[in-house]
Design a protein that fits this description.
The chain has two domains: 187 residues, Isopropylmalate Dehydrogenase; 140 residues, Isopropylmalate Dehydrogenase. The chain is built from eleven helices and twelve strands. Helix 1 runs parallel beside helix 11. The relative contact order is 0.16. The structure holds 1,4-dihydronicotinamide adenine dinucleotide (NAI) and magnesium ion. The site of 1,4-dihydronicotinamide adenine dinucleotide has 21 residues, from loops.
Length: 338
């Protein structure tokens, strides 16, 4: 029996790479019954709404989403649709795994999972301006907040993830030396949670700036990282860059009522419609979705196909130093999963 799921092709390169992913999912008869919905600029173009009600209703019904990247127009009064979706569905954990695929780079043994708090911190976006004289925007302000409950929940999620996925260590990444309250609460709760896993999962602490330095010098020493929203956003792009870039990096947004799977990257307007985007980040997001519905067997088949095509056959898009098109790599992947 098929599992109902919402499909949002997205903006920019979204339709190309999501289309490619669906072709591959179809080739292995992935058990999803797609409900296609619009969001982002595609929603604005169709109905003037970047997040149409029918899209929200669909996600409430299915609780499961595969999503292409969405363009958020800057300075046009739109709130980020991604932030809105995460809040609407309480998608509190953003899980971003990064693993070495192509060896022979600077590092060959990277296997890091960044667990990012997805609802609070500075991305709660309580931003404002204070006028001085005639300048209405003379001073800009941003008030971040975090709750004990959410700090506890995200760190616990990371430790449970570590247990379930045979991981050894969780690193709490923070800036509690400066942001004594905002990050202090995260660290305080993090330490309490870590105690509950003593003897099972090791725990380390790093200040975010030192962590960034270590991540580019000895990334092999990292396992699971759990951190607040803004730091997680930045560090997960960094870790993706250690292993081949954004074209390979998937993410899962997990909540109690819904789960949404997407690439870490955005809509890449610079290469949209040029048939050169790498579909693997979204394809890998689909494998996370398959694992989420307990179809690890199918996820494994896709992972193997990616390895065959990209590593063994060296069929690579431009972002990975190759010259094949989106369509060509999609055809190769389809053949490899069959
Ligand atoms: P971006 O991630 O779209 O692009 C950054 C660079 O990476 C570009 O040079 C792009 O060509 C390249 N790139 C990204 N994905 C690629 C792929 N699959 N294959 C090959 N190259 C790829 O970031 P940017 O340009 O800062 O943002 C563009 C738009 O995307 C903005 O409107 C932003 O708000 C939105 N965005 C949406 C996200 C989402 O829906 N989850 C996440 C991040 C950004
Ligand atoms: Mg980001």
């Amino acid at each position: 029996s098929l599992i109902p799921a919402t499909l949002i092709p997205g903006d920019g390169i979204g339709p190309e790479i999501v289309g490619a992913t669906i072709e591959i999912l179809d080739a292995i008869q992935a058990p999803f019954k797609w409900d296609r919905q619009l969001a982002g600029m595609a929603g604005v173009d169709a109905s003037g709404d970047p997040l149409p009600q029918s899209t929200i209703e669909s996600i409430h019904k299915t609780g499961l989403v595969l999503k292409g990247p969405l363009t958020t127009p800057v300075g046009k009064g739109y709130r980020s649709i991604n932030v809105t979706l995460r809040r609407e569905f309480g998608l509190y954990a953003n899980v971003r795994p990064t693993k070495t695929l192509i060896k022979g780079g600077r590092f060959d043994n990277i296997d890091i999972v960044v667990v990012r708090e997805n609802l609070e911190g500075f991305y709660a976006a309580m931003e404002n301006h204070i006028p001085v004289d005639n300048d209405l925007k003379a001073i800009a302000t941003c008030a971040g907040y975090t709750s004990r409950k959410e700090c506890r929940r995200i760190v616990k999620f990371a430790f449970d993830y570590a247990v379930q996925n045979n991981r050894k260590k969780v690193t709490l990444v923070h800036k509690a030396n400066i942001l004594k309250e905002l990050c202090g609460l995260f660290l305080e709760e993090g330490r309490k949670v870590a105690k509950e896993y003593e003897g099972k999962i090791a725990c380390e602490e790093r200040i975010v700036d030192a962590c960034s330095m270590e991540l580019v010098i000895k990334p092999e020493t990292y396992d699971v990282i759990v951190t607040t929203n803004l730091f997680g956003d930045i560090l997960s792009d960094l870790t993706s860059g250690l292993t081949g870039g954004l074209g390979l990096a998937p993410g899962a947004n997990i909540g109690e009522k819904a789960a949404m799977f997407e690439a870490v990257h955005g809509s890449a307007p610079d290469i949209a419609g040029k048939n050169c985007a790498n579909p693997i980040a979204v394809l890998r997001a689909a494998t996370l979705m398959l694992k989420h519905v307990k179809r690890d067997d199918l996820a494994k088949r896709i992972d193997k196909a990616i390895h065959k095509v990209v590593v063994e056959d060296k069929i690579r898009t431009r972002d990975l130093g190759g010259n094949v098109t989106t369509k060509e790599i999609t055809a190769a992947l389809k053949q490899a999963v069959a």
